[in-house]
Design brief:
transferase; methyltransferase; SAM-dependent_MTases_sf; two-stranded antiparallel sheet; Methyltransferase domain-containing protein; alpha/beta; Methyltransf_25; 6 helices; seven-stranded mixed beta sheet; Rossmann fold; 9 strands
Amino acid sequence: MPLFPFSRGASKRVRPEPPAGSEPPDPETRAALDRHRHDDDRHTITHFSRLLSRHGRSHASLEWNSRESQERRFGVLVEIGIQAGDSVLDVGCGTGDLLAWMERRGLTVDYAGMDLTPMMVEHARARFPERPFVQGCLLDGVDLPKDRFDWVLASGIFAHRRDHPDAHMRDMIAAMLPLAGKGVAVNSLSLTAPQNRQWQLFHADPDATIAWAREQVPRADLREDYDPNDFTLYLYTDAAAARTKPWRP
């Protein structure tokens, strides 16, 4: 059983507010961004449904090069400062691999997962029937088991965005921040990666992204020490929570 059993009667429909200091786009621009986002959402659902049908519950169904590559990123995300007993929302949870990784290491947390792809959520629920898994996108409003979590994590959810990917990444992080009592950790392919311009996937600019992040929260850190193709952001909504992280810049 989970540390804090999930009650569906306690779920809340959450549509996060924009970050403080941000200027919302005009209605015409917002409508265009939403159309592009929903097109990308449909592409993502179709793409990963096909991969899951082909590979089953495997790192390959999520397009990781290897299980080791996937789990190395899990380790970096958790090093934001997650401790036993903390509550965690896993955005883009796939079939629950992060939860399985934490359980193998004896890290017991109050976990909830969500994913855009219905088939991924079905597999996660079958794999961990005692845990809450939600299908949907934070930007559309979703039924979550609680209003806030200690930590919100997302691994590998930006690579397949094709239209306005930088804006989408900022919008998603901004949607995670009001849900996080301590902080948000996300990763992305990096614009500084070797031969990045030959790749088809979205690569974010780490310098521009960390500069934006530091305008949103009391403290934000950038990690580029674990993979030449990747970076991770730690955004602390509570600056004191940064003291719990084992990693130091």
